[in-house]
Amino acid sequence: MDQGIRKIIHIDMDAFFASVEQRDDPALRGRPVAVGHSRERGVVAAASYEARRFGVHSAMPSLTALRLCPDLVFVPPRFDTYRAVSAEIRAVFAEYTPLIEPLSLDEAYLDVTTNLKGIPRATRIARDIRALILERTQLTASAGISYNKFLAKLASDYRKPNGQFTITPEMGPDFVAALDIGRFHGIGPATAAKMHALGIHTGADLRKPTEAFLLLHFGKIGAHFHSIAWGIDARPVVPDRPRKSTGAERTYGTDLKREEEVLAALGPLVDEVWRWREKSGALGRSVTVKLRYADFTQTTRSRTLASPVTRRGELEAVAVDLVRSLLPLAQPVRLLGVTLSHFEDTEAGEPGQMTFEF
Predict the structure, then answer these.
(1) Which positions are annotated as active-site residues?
(2) Domain covering 245-343, topology
(3) Consecutive sets of 10 residues in the chain, 358 residues long: mean pLDDT of each?
(4) pTM for the predicted model, two decimal places
(5) Could you tell me what percentage of the chain is helix, strand and coil, using 3-state DSSP and rounding each to the nearest 5?
(6) CATH 3.30.470.30 describes domain 1-168
(7) N or C, where is the chain less crowded by C-beta within 10 Å?
(8) Comparing C-alpha atoms, which of 199, 201, 194 is closest to residue 180?
(9) 170 contacts: CB under 8 Å, gap ≥ 6
């Protein structure tokens, strides 16, 4: 094939959090599982395929999930375990290429145009990677293979779970033309509704307007829409993307009504942020607190310091001051969050982060 054409693989683990729980607890295998909490204001973080058959999905309120699937088993998340397994998976990727762009713990792009094993076919590399992941973690992965990131991500959904699909340069334009606009990665429900109102329902429809028309109606992203309508995506795989912030937040089962309750709730959030800071070595100068009230309105307060935060107590003190600036409470608090950002360039980024012929 043309030497100028890239070979991109998108790897997506299958129901990652839930699959780890089923792997580690045989009693959960074959049962509908949700990672999260079943309490009144709990939210599903991940759902097994058995649960998805009932319509359960991530970000769904737990009570809704239980109504759809009364036999749903909730298990609390174990993020340290998921991160450890993710590191094993990333180590597999690194055996094939240094060009690895992580999107999350369970998803990444790999550029294998040239690769460390000298394998000419990206489809074989994807099969080998999926087999190694299964061997080392007992978990399945799906893969999409194509000549750019947009199409590789589309392809990885095509044979889920535990499969792979290739969109070749010859297939790309026709594949996109037939695709419903709601299936385009990066086009959410609100944008899709706006496109429908403009008479754009498929990839073929998206080719009809001029780039100027799309820029007028969608802003800068309009140029990207104009390109992907033809299966064109020049974005490179970007290894070692610096992390811009780290944060922790909690939605509480009972609203925090008293000021002392809100201030006391900051401690565990600061602990979580500080654990990541110590592990990563990142040094941040901006602290943000977020409060979401009982009526779902939200407010934030931020402070950028002259020098990086180097002590946990300093982080907590700033967070407490920011919350106190919002007192007295306008109304009870249902969610509280703390974020550290504005990392120093020399320290930013998560250690051990991945760098990901058809």
Answers:
(1) 107
(2) Dna Ligase; domain 1 (3.30.1490)
(3) 77 97 98 88 88 92 94 93 94 96 92 95 98 98 97 94 96 94 86 94 96 94 94 91 80 87 91 83 91 90 93 94 94 93 57 35
(4) 0.71
(5) 40, 20, 40
(6) no
(7) N
(8) 201
(9) none
